[in-house]
Amino acid sequence: MSEPQLSVVVPVFNERDNVAPLVGEIVAALRGQVDFEIVYVDDNSKDDTLAVLESLKLTHPELRVLHHVQQSGQSTAVRNGIKAARAPWIATLDGDGQNDPADIPKMLAARATAPTQVKLFAGWRVNRQDSGSKRWASKWANAIRARMLRDDTPDTGCGIKLFERAAFLDLPYFDHMHRFLPALMQRAGWKTISVPVNHRHRTAGVSKYNNLNRALVGIRDLRGVAWLIARSRRTDVQER
């Protein structure tokens, strides 16, 4: 099998009813457009998500399945999927089906016309389909983050992103880092672009987070990322 050009990484925890529809949508969006693989990372689900994924491998040759032997969180699942990926570019999706895989070709098109210094294309949910309280909390968090980090990104919480694998693996790793990718990429010297994308209602399962949990964790992480940016040093290197 030839090496894929794109790896679609999807972290999941207790999403058994969302797995099959989302895999089907990814295949429909990308098959015939680009050589790709799908890397699902099951974060030790307590339902039969893993069994559903393993059964889908029989009919979807692009699908690979990784399994955490203990629950480790979304950032770790994303990173482990990226480490296992075989393609030089990564697309990520949340496993709840709210991201639309049909937006991945749009992001690939944006990459085709962007300067090589752009290493991250971040989804921007211009028409959020979450509850009013969740949208308000996200708006508040984005405003604080933008003021502190100056990352010029309207929506860092969107799960659909396209980025270079090598650039991601060069970033400092910490839990919840996936929420700060634009700022971390910019800290590393790369440019980022926000791409308007579709957003959908969750049709099955339940959210794994609440607004209070997001806020408490986010404040601590935000201070840490601000410290990383303040302490960063970059210089061009020449081999002589």
CATH superfamily, please?
Spore Coat Polysaccharide Biosynthesis Protein SpsA, Chain A
Low-confidence stretches: none
Strand content: 15-25%
Order of helices and strands: EHEHEHEHEHEHHEH
Roughly how many Å apart are the termini?
40 Å
Tell me, rounded to a whole number, the average pLDDT. Answer: 88
Q: Radius of gyration, rounded?
A: 17 Å
CATH fold naming: Spore Coat Polysaccharide Biosynthesis Protein SpsA, Chain A
State the domain count.
1
Q: Give the structural class.
A: alpha/beta
- What gross morphology would you assign? globular
GO molecular function, one term: undecaprenyl-phosphate 4-deoxy-4-formamido-L-arabinose transferase activity
Protein name: Dolichol-phosphate mannosyltransferase
Domain Glycosyltransferase 2-like: 7-168
Pfam families: Glycos_transf_2 (PF00535)
Description:
- The chain is globular and about 50 Å long.
- It has helices at residues 16-30, 49-56, 74-84, 103-113, 132-149, 165-169, 181-187, 211-231, and strands at residues 6-12, 36-42, 63-67, 89-92, 118-125, 161-164, 191-197.
- Helix 1 (16-30) runs parallel beside helix 2 and helix 5 runs parallel beside helix 8.
- The protein has a single domain, classed as Spore Coat Polysaccharide Biosynthesis Protein SpsA, Chain A (Alpha-Beta Complex).
- It has a 7-stranded mixed β-sheet with strand order 3-2-1-4-6-5-7, sandwiched between helices.
- It is built from 8 helices and 7 strands, in the order βαβαβαβαβαβααβα.
- It has 240 residues and is an alpha/beta fold.
- It comes from Stenotrophomonas panacihumi.
- This is Dolichol-phosphate mannosyltransferase.
- GO terms for molecular function: undecaprenyl-phosphate 4-deoxy-4-formamido-L-arabinose transferase activity.
- Residues 7-168 form the Glycosyltransferase 2-like domain.
- Pfam families: Glycos_transf_2 (PF00535).
